[in-house]
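Your task
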Amino acid sequence: MQQHFYVLTRKRGLLWAARIAAVLLSAAAAAANALECRITLQTDDALRFVPSHISVPAACKDFTVTLTHKGHLPPLAMSHNWVLTKKSDLDGVARTGMLAGADAHHVDQKDKRVIAHTKLIGTGETTNVTFAVAQLKAGEQYVFLCTFAGHSPIMRGTLSLQ
């Protein structure tokens, strides 16, 4: 009888330990997934994105890019946005964005080559955009850029689907 009680107690203990481990693993996976499905980029007066490469996990449903401007120049001279497109569409998106003007955040709102974009921000401001990862295709080359007048030739980065 005592041996039966021991086996029963041990089985219950193992069952509870397995349940606790499953909950902890699930919580850890959810936290890791939430962290991987977003990134914060910084910009400044040096015409750069930091970091300049983004890896998007294919397992993410949506991906969020937060853009923060750490510069010091006035917005009229040094505003930034973040625009995502295919590498093959880079020059066309840069050109139409610049022509769209500041009221349109230097993004042609009808340009289907633009996958995602933020609004223009100035010093001390932050903005973000969330887009569906399903819009991205494995093996395709993606770039992001700032389409504020004159910034696109220098202010660029790459994005890959992992």
Notes: The longest strand covers residues 62-69.
